[in-house]
Amino acid sequence: MTTPLPPDPASSYPTAAELSSEIRSGRLTAVAAAQASAERIAALDGTVRAFLHTDAERSAAWAADADRRIAEGSQSDLAGIPVAIKDNLCIEGEPCTCASRMLENFRPPYTATAVRRLLDAGAVPIGRTNLDEFAMGSSTENSVAGPTRNPWDPVRAPGGSSGGSAAAVAAGMAPIALGSDTGGSIRQPAAFCGVVGLKPTYGRVSRYGLVAFASSLDQIGPFARTVRGAATVLQTIAGHDPLDSTSLSDPVPDYLTDLDEPLAGLRVGVVADHFDVGLDKEVADAVQGAIETYRSLGAEVVNVTLPHSKYSVATYYLIAPSEASSNLARYDGVHYGHRAKKFGSLEELYERSRGEGFGNEVKRRIMLGTYALSSGYYDAFYLKAMKVRRLIQQDYDAAFEQCDVIASPVTPTTAFAIGELADDPLAMYLSDVYTISANLAGIPALSLPCGFSKGLPIGLQLLGPALSEPKLLRAARMYEFTTDWHTRVPPLQDQTGVTP
């Protein structure tokens, strides 16, 4: 018989659970909660630049509707909770730019299923967050609107591509946010910003309404200040969707009831190669310290191997750009997206529209993918990469026969300075070296805070077998309860120099 963990200690910024308690008790209204988020965005976003678009009037209307539902007896844990939405997820009638000139005038005629489920639960979208253009990047610098800044140090990047969502949660602008993860785009910014970020099993959350980057890798997931916040969002957005042919039909388990029950007999896998050359010493020490914490809690720490993980980056940068080349072919100035004003022939229209509409990183990946798919190279590159992907999946299958979760770093370093890797694409790509393989294997993985180095957060990554989110979340909560890393907040000041 295990003893439930007590509630989280209160932090400087209210968590989703704390806000929900206030709203459902009647001590706070959803309208007031949305207004508080709007005021914090106004005070801080001139520095952080997490948001691309806000609509206070529409958010207030959603909040008023949430208050009505609560008065009528709504029991949803998300009723009235402000949520930030990454700007590659469609909301009917709102801008969805993907931080690209290509979609600067796009207003979707439909709402993404994940967002719709949040709205149905009474959550209140408060704005659209910045990202690397079309989610292609690891720093949120590749945005037509300019970079988002890390709340812990504004000269540093928040990670990417979901950097705006991570920064919004870290800065207390919203207690929860949605992002997308194609090769680490939720977990890496969560680590850089000191929040919890979860990439679910591929197909666990519908991709309908997510602007596609790499369709076999993309997955929508939550950011939150705590593991419970992430689990609450997942509980709401997970489940089969007939509008997404890749959506899994498996029933959605209860992620919350047993969340605070420690796992007896937990086996934590460790891969020696994850602590090899290239990993910052302080990051390694923090992650190793987290693993020792699990040992002190009674977990068995076992060594496992992932022999093909060293090929993950190369494999990913063949598969993802190839799928991007196909998905982004529709943006040609005729079917979708920006259209050049001056052109002669149809070919020139395509060339000018795509040249003007796409940024350099997107162009780089389209060219990589087009080359890999071209006649005479398909077998040598894309097909071979798909075969290696299968080997990576098999490695994880074998490893999880020996352990329940694998613990690893999320990133090789803490947050790097904005501009530091801008002229070195390979170094930027390697910042996702620990996260990419989970997308290739389709398994769930999350990042949670496990320490600091020179005032910057460090993330611990936990990975589990497909559809193991209940155990993964409970394992994360075990660690979270024994530490206070998740209660620490950045020393931000508003635009008048006053700490909120």
Quickly describe the structure.
The chain is of the alpha/beta class. It has helices at 16-25, 30-48, 56-71, 113-120, 163-170, 187-193, 227-237, 281-296, 312-327, 346-357, 360-373, 379-399, 425-430, 436-441, 469-482, and strands at residues 51-53, 82-86, 124-129, 176-181, 196-199, 219-224, 267-271, 300-304, 405-409, 445-453, 456-463. The chain has 15 helices and 11 strands.
How are the SSEs ordered, and which strands pair?
Elements: H1 16-25, H2 30-48, E1 51-53, H3 56-71, E2 82-86, H4 113-120, E3 124-129, H5 163-170, E4 176-181, H6 187-193, E5 196-199, E6 219-224, H7 227-237, E7 267-271, H8 281-296, E8 300-304, H9 312-327, H10 346-357, H11 360-373, H12 379-399, E9 405-409, H13 425-430, H14 436-441, E10 445-453, E11 456-463, H15 469-482
Parallel strand pairs: 2-3, 2-4, 7-8, 7-9
Antiparallel strand pairs: 1-3, 4-6, 5-6, 5-10, 9-11, 10-11
Subunit structure: Heterotrimer of A, B and C subunits.
InterPro entries: Amidase (IPR000120), Amidase_CS (IPR020556), Amidase_dom (IPR023631), AS_sf (IPR036928), GatA (IPR004412)
GO molecular function: glutaminyl-tRNA synthase (glutamine-hydrolyzing) activity
Could you describe the 3D structure shown?
- Its EC number is 6.3.5.7.
- InterPro entries: Amidase (IPR000120), Amidase_CS (IPR020556), Amidase_dom (IPR023631), AS_sf (IPR036928), GatA (IPR004412).
- Pfam families: Amidase (PF01425).
- By secondary structure, the protein is an alpha/beta fold.
- The protein has a single domain, classed as Alpha-Beta Complex (Amidase signature (AS) enzymes), CATH 3.90.1300.
- 37% of the residues lie in helices and 12% in strands.
- It has 15 helices and eleven strands.
- The protein has an eleven-stranded mixed sheet, with helices on both faces.
- Helix 5 packs parallel to helix 6 and helix 9 crosses helix 12.
- The protein is globular and about 65 Å long.
- The termini are far apart.
- The N terminus and C terminus are likely disordered.
